[in-house]
Amino acid sequence: MKVKSIRWIGCEEAEVELSNDNDNEEQTILAFCHPCTLKLGDRVNQPLEAFDTGIIVISQIENVVIEKQTGFSYRIIAKSIDISARIVDACGILIRLPKLPYLCHVGEFLEFYVERLDLV
């Protein structure tokens, strides 16, 4: 992921727009970052941390969806890629979930709402 823009909201806190850096199918997402030491163009290799996800279900839809709600919140459908680390992939935007549905397997699409994504 690549830092596309930074909007400072405090001395060390920022709203960071990340891009999957894919020209064919660009996706962007906003994440909260504290303390933020990033600069425009920086690469982010670690997954975003999903904060306050509520219910996470195996989706009947097998396409990635990143749908902005309000503030930092999103509705997301993403593909599970690492069960033990609880990581899903939304077109190159990696997200670590706090939990996974029971009997979730690699390659399944998961649907969830998230209140905020954090860069840690």
Walkthrough of the structure:
This protein has about 120 residues and is mostly beta strands. The protein contains no helices and eleven strands. Strand 7 and strand 8 form a beta hairpin. The mean pLDDT is about 95.
- Outline type: globular
Helix fraction, binned, reads under 10%
Which percent range describes the beta-strand content?
over 45%
Radius of gyration: 14 Å
Largest β-sheet summary: 11 strands, mixed
Unreliably modeled segments: none
Give me the strand/helix succession.
Answer: EEEEEEEEEEE
| Tally of strands | 11
Per DSSP, the total helix count is 0
On the 0 to 100 scale, the average pLDDT is 94
What is the oligomer described by this structure? single chain
Distance between the termini: 14 Å
Q: What structural class should be given to the helix and strand makeup?
A: mainly beta
Topology:
Blueprint: E1 2-8, E2 14-19, E3 28-33, E4 48-51, E5 56-58, E6 65-68, E7 74-82, E8 87-90, E9 93-96, E10 109-114, E11 116-119
Parallel strand pairs: 3-11, 4-9
Antiparallel strand pairs: 1-2, 2-3, 4-11, 5-10, 6-7, 7-8, 7-10, 8-9
